[in-house]
Automatic annotation (TrEMBL):
The gene is ppk. The active site is at H433. Belongs to the polyphosphate kinase 1 (PPK1) family. Residues 585-615 form the PLD phosphodiesterase domain. It is an enzyme of class 2 (transferase). It comes from Candidatus Erwinia haradaeae. Catalyzes the reversible transfer of the terminal phosphate of ATP to form a long-chain polyphosphate (polyP). Mg(2+) binds at R373, R403. Its cofactor is Mg(2+). This is Polyphosphate kinase. Its EC number is 2.7.4.1.
Length: 689
């Protein structure tokens, strides 16, 4: 069997995942405004695809260019462009359908040609007093360096300044970081409508206000465009520099990195397209796409709530864990037994409250925590600063290399250092992706420790949108090893071993191979053996091959993969016993769970690590063995609900067809709704016991 049949290209698998997001925008059972927001998510994902995955492919092609570019890379590049173009056509058709549906619900996204007299007057005033200060045209001349001036995440209007036979060009930045992209207009009586106009169209309407008195012209025309840069950076400067200095320098590289995608309004004149292509040095390997009138659809993720209540998702009240509310203090609750939280079904407030309490509790001596992505106004950062003010020994490991959060994390590192917090950074090229904190507390003359091991970031905002687990424990078997992880972070070259934690890059590959091999051994003995994995991405070839081996030996493997999956299920003689699904729904499925079960023994792990080579070999990641049988069962129950989803689960197959799981005679199961009910029922049982 050849390579192509055994492994799906990760780039195509990623695009397939984003097409599942587009399916949610097309799903008429979703509320209208949520469907619009899924368009925004699709657009945001595609932007990241070009910044990271497509850029990596382009670099591989350029590196091979001097020798001989493999035919497979050309073929892959062609398939990517075809797939993106097809999805882009579906995207724009769907967008038009949803705009019509919004109009039926009296929500009107209008353009500059549809304004009433009153709205025109209002917009002139709005432009003069709110927008004008943020608008500075970039004139395109022979010497203009657009790569230097243009920003990556912005939409621009490319303006033709026409006077007779002479045409000049200028660019206007849409300042959506300074003012809202969506502007509510006064209604046009007697209609009870809710008109909205995009910032882009306000600038189109006010073009003369911008250029009048500066240029002589007969008329002006504006067309939208945007470009996407390669998001990679390197550390090729003096290595005696600190990581903080390295990262600051590397971020400046990103600001002027080469574009890899150029998107322009489909009716933009050919001469203008050619000028922009040349100015941006767009090569034959880059993606060039004609598009609609609007770009940066990711702003639609924040489309305003308007109209009837049923146009958005009904909010689910986040649940409090009864165990915390049964004790006056969080430490007493955790000391009684391990506590498992599952967001966004549980509230993240429990973690915030525990850290807040630790910041001023006289018995607390020491707090260690690592941060990767935190909220914009992070309560956790403020709590750590207050803990330091209160005399606690506070250590915060700040990951400066968290992609797209580097600048924010540099800011937080400086704030923490100024407050007297001991700040640690990872070594260049070795990201710390673990989700840990450790609190040391003096109790009865002894030091007891409380640990958090999670699958998601310490981020109040994403904890309301992403599914993630937090394990809170005082079990010394776990807390002692978490302490060793923090020692390893401080000195990553010292020898260390773990029994209850799976820690990358120390023992992850060895332990995961061993866990799979154990199931193979039992299957060969005729004992039913099962593996259930929930991951964001399954890419590492060594682990994929091990799963193939397990399947061929009779191990039943169930995969729940949100994003990239290079493994091909249901190949005869290779993966007959592997079933793979992907669930895309209201919440982003983000937790990583590993279950190994052969009846005689069951092992359940929660982890920060996906099964990608970088997570296994090149990052500091932590997985934890769930030792409490009750919590083990809860996790397995939740996994089973996900496996039984008959509404939002898609089959992962070699064709990347994204077909929905066939329900047959089974009842309708929307796993995220059922999980909420399940967790709520656990609290009811706890109350009654």
């Amino acid at each position: 069997m050849n390579h192509e049949k055994l492994y799906i290209d990760k780039e195509l698998s990623w695009l397939s995942f984003n097409e599942r997001v587009l399916q949610e925008a097309a799903d008429k059972t979703n509320p209208l405004l949520e469907r619009m927001r899924f368009l925004g998510i699709y657009s945001n994902n595609l932007e990241e695809f070009y910044k990271v995955i497509f850029s990596d492919l382009k670099r591989r092609i350029l590196i091979s260019e001097e020798r001989c570019i493999p035919e497979s890379l050309y073929h892959l590049l062609k398939k990517i462009k075809e797939r993106v173009f097809k999805a882009d056509q579906e995207f724009h058709a769907l967008c038009n359908d949803l705009l019509l549906e919004m109009a039926r619900n009296k929500i009107f996204l209008i353009n500059e040609r549809q304004l009433s007299i009153n709205q025109q007057t209002w917009l002139r005033h709005y432009f003069k007093y709110t927008l004008r200060q943020h608008i500075t045209p970039i004139l395109i001349t022979q010497d203009t360096n657009l790569i230097k001036f243009l920003k990556d995440d912005y939409t621009y209007l490319s303006v033709e300044i026409i006077r007779g036979a002479e045409i000049n060009y200028a660019l206007l930045e849409i300042p959506s970081d300074k003012v809202p992209r969506f502007v509510n207009l006064p209604p046009a009586p007697p209609h009870r409508r809710k008109p909205i106009i995009l910032l882009d169209n306000i600038l189109r309407y006010c073009l003369e206000d911008i250029f009048c008195g500066v240029f002589d012209y007969d008329f002006l025309r504006a067309y939208s465009m945007k470009m996407t840069r390669d998001a990679e950076y390197d550390f090729s400067i003096e290595m005696e520099s600190s990581l903080l200095e390295l990262m600051s320098s590397s971020l400046k590289q990103r600001l002027t990195a080469k574009p890899v995608r150029f998107v322009y309004q489909y009716d933009m004149p050919d001469a203008m397209v050619e000028i922009l292509r040349n100015k941006l040095n767009i090569s034959k390997y880059d993606s060039i796409l004609p598009g609609g009138r609007y770009h940066n659809f990711k702003d639609f993720m924040s489309f305003p709530n308007l109209g009837k209540v049923n146009l958005s998702n009904k909010p689910l009240v986040q649940l409090r864990h009864l165990r915390f509310d049964s004790f006056l203090n969080g430490f007493d609750a955790i000391r009684t037994c391990d506590i498992l939280l599952y967001y966004p079904y549980h509230t993240f407030e429990h973690v915030l409250e525990l850290l807040h309490q630790a910041s001023f509790d006289p018995a607390v001596l020491d707090i260690k925590i690592n941060i990767y992505r935190v909220a914009k106004e992070s309560r956790i950062i403020n709590t750590m600063i207050h803990a330091a003010y209160n005399g606690k020994k506070v250590t915060v490991v700040v990951e400066l290399q968290a992609r797209f959060d580097e600048e924010a994390n540099i800011h937080w590192a400086k704030c923490l250092t100024e407050a007297g917090v001991h700040v640690l950074f990872s070594a260049p090229g070795l990201k710390i992706h673990a989700k840990l904190f450790l609190i040391s507390r003096c109790e009865g003359g002894e030091i007891n420790r409380y640990a958090h091991i999670g699958t998601g970031n310490f981020n109040e905002k994403t904890a309301q949108l992403y599914t993630d687990y937090s394990l809170l424990t005082a079990d010394a078997r776990i807390t002692n090893e978490v302490r060793e992880v923090f020692n390893f972070i401080a000195n990553p070259y010292r020898s260390v071993s773990f029994k209850y934690l799976i820690v990358s890059p120390q023992n992850s590959r060895y332990m995961l191979y061993q866990l799979i091999d154990n199931e193979i051994t039992y299957a060969k003995q005729g004992i039913p053996a099962n593996i259930i994995l929930k991951l964001n991405n399954l890419v590492d070839k060594g682990l994929v091959d091990r799963l193939y081996m397990a399947s061929s030996c009779g191990v039943q493997v169930n995969l729940i993969i949100r994003g990239i999956c290079t493994l091909v299920p249901n190949l005869r003689g290779v993966s007959d016993n592997i079933c793979a699904i992907s669930i895309v729904d209201r919440y982003l499925e983000h937790d990583r769970v590993y279950v190994f079960d052969h009846g005689m023994e069951r092992k359940v792990f929660l982890s920060s690590a996906d099964w990608m080579t970088r997570n296994i070999d090149d990052r500091i990641e932590v997985g934890v063995s769930i030792l409490d049988p009750v919590l083990q069962q809860q996790i397995i129950d939740i996994m089973q609900i996900l496996i039984n989803d008959t509404l939002k689960a898609r089959v992962i197959d070699q064709a990347l067809s994204n077909g929905y799981v066939q329900r047959g005679n089974r009842r309708k199961v929307r796993s995220q709704v059922e999980i909420y009910k399940y967790i709520k029922s656990l609290e009811t049982l706890e109350k009654s016991s």
